[in-house]
Amino acid sequence: MRTVNKTHCNNDIYGERLRARYHQLPPSQHAVARFIDENREEVLHHTALDIAAATHTSDATVIRTVKTLGFAGLRELKNIIGHSLAPAANLTESMAIIARDVNAGIDRVLATNHLVSELLSRPDNRHAITLAVALISDASNVAVLGLGNCSALAKYSARMFGHAGIHALAINRSGVRMAEQLCRLQCSDMMLIIAGQLSAYEELSGLREAKRLGIPVVVIDYASNTRLNKEADAVITIPCAPASNGLNPHSPIMLCLDMLLLSVAETRAQHTINTLKQINDLHRKISRHNR
Prior knowledge:
The chain has helices at about 15-20, 25-40, 40-45, 50-55, 60-70, 75-85, 90-120, 125-135, 150-165, 175-180, 200-210, 225-230, 250-265, 270-290; strands spanning about 140-145, 165-170, 190-195, 215-220, 235. With about 290 residues, the protein is an alpha/beta fold.
C-alpha cells in the first residue's frame, strides 16, 4: 500500500483510517480506497459513479468502501479530504480539473437533450404530442396531475397554461388533499398526467376518476407499458436521465413540457397575447398601488 503523499497536511484523517482499516477491505474496495488516496483533489469533484467508472467497480462498492473506512458517506469524506489538503495546492491544476468538469457537464446535458429530442420526434410520440396539443388548445379547463417529485412540475405547467388563457388545475397532493382536488375535475376538459416513479397507485386513481367523468387523458411517462398508460388516450414516452450524468432526473420531462407549452401558445397565439397583455396591465396597476 502506498504511503500518504507529503503534500497533505499532518491532520490526515483519511490516510490514518486507510492504514488502520486497509486489511478489512476486500479486493474491489482496495482499488477504490487507493484511487481516492492517490487522486484526492480530483475526488473532491467526483460522484460515486465517477469513482466507480475510474476503478471498474460499482457505485455501491464505492459507498461501501467509504463506510468501511469510517465515514458516514461520500460527502463527509470529501469534506475531510478538502480540509486535509495543503493550503498551497496548485491553483492551475485545480482550475484545469474544474474546466474538465464544466466541459464534461456541458457535454452530458447536450447529449441527454439530444437523446430526448430524438425520442420525442418518433412517429408515435409526434402523434401523442399532436393529440395532447389539440386537446389542451381546445380546452377551457385543463387538469395537470403530478404527484411527489412531480408536484412542482404540475404547478408550473398549470401556471404556464394560464398564460395561454386556459384555466388549469394542478392536482399535486396526496391522500385526502388529492381527493379534494379531484372533486374539482368535473369542470375540466382534459387531464395531463406527469407520471413519476413513486405514486403509481394514486396516479391510476386520478386517471380512472377522469375516465369516469368522460375526460380524455394524456400521460407523459418514462415507460410505455404500464397499467397507467394502457388506460390513457395517448402516451408521450420519454427516456430516463441516466443517473451517471448528474442531471436532474426531470430534465427530459421539462423539455417535453416546454414543447407542449410552446406548441399550445402558438396554436392559441391571440389568446396568449391577450392574456399576457392583461397580466402585464394588472401587474402595472398593482405596482402603482403598492408605491
